[in-house]
Specification:
Elements lengths: L1 H14 L7 E5 L6 E3 H15 L8 H10 L4 H4 L11 H13 L4 H16 L3 H20 L3 H6 L3 H15 L1 H15 L2
Antiparallel strand pairs: 1-2
Helix pairs in contact: 2-3, 2-7, 3-6, 3-7, 6-7, 7-9, 7-10, 9-10
């Protein structure tokens, strides 16, 4: 049984290597290339560990775990940028989560899928904070790269506030206050 569990765990680890091949719209801050989804997840996990201490109702390591798991589904469904249409995305991502986490032994599958579903629902303090960080990171990148994907997609200040603001504010009002200031400074004439 232990050998079977190890085989399943290794199969999962090999499968998630595919996340490195999912190229996102967001550039790296140095603008040398676009980031991939694995880099995005790693960066977000560090956001959780660094910023989580300022939000007493969250458990930073649990949030980091959610953020390491949340985009694994992109191996099957691809990256869905915030400025795109998302009609069938949820169904494709749920099927991807079940397939990819299903590679694991049942106890790990259930734990990881549960964390993924919790993130998607966004109802617990940990999930709300994780979702806030998932919006904050690309917002920060856009402000540091001269507009990045906002410029490429013709996104306005009002659109940024509507698309990013409620999610960030719901997870951390302090982070939204900070981010809102960055957004406003970016869009100043």
């Amino acid at each position: 049984m232990a050998d079977d569990n190890l085989e399943r765990q290794i199969a999962f680890l090999v499968e998630i290597d595919g996340l490195k091949s999912i190229v996102r719209q967001s550039p790296l801050i140095d603008r040398s290339r676009r980031e991939n989804s694995a880099e995005h997840s790693w960066h977000l996990a560090l956001f959780a560990l660094v910023l989580g201490d300022s939000t007493p109702e969250v458990t930073p390591t649990r949030v980091a775990t959610m953020l390491l798991l949340h985009d694994i589904v992109e191996i099957d469904s691809g990256d869905a940028p915030i400025h795109a249409s998302h009609d069938l995305e949820a169904l494709a991502e749920k099927a991807a989560a079940e397939r990819i986490f299903g590679l694991l032994p049942s106890a790990q599958r259930d734990r990881f899928l549960s964390l993924w579903l919790e993130f998607e629902a966004g109802e617990t303090p940990d999930a709300r904070f994780a979702k806030a960080l998932d919006r904050l990171q690309p917002l920060l990148v856009n402000t540091l790269t001269g507009g990045g994907t906002w410029s490429e997609n013709g996104v306005t200040e009002d659109q940024v506030c509507v698309r990013y603001g409620p999610t960030i504010e719901r997870g951390s009002p302090a982070l939204w206050t900070y981010a809102r200031r960055l957004v406003h400074q970016h869009f100043l004439p």
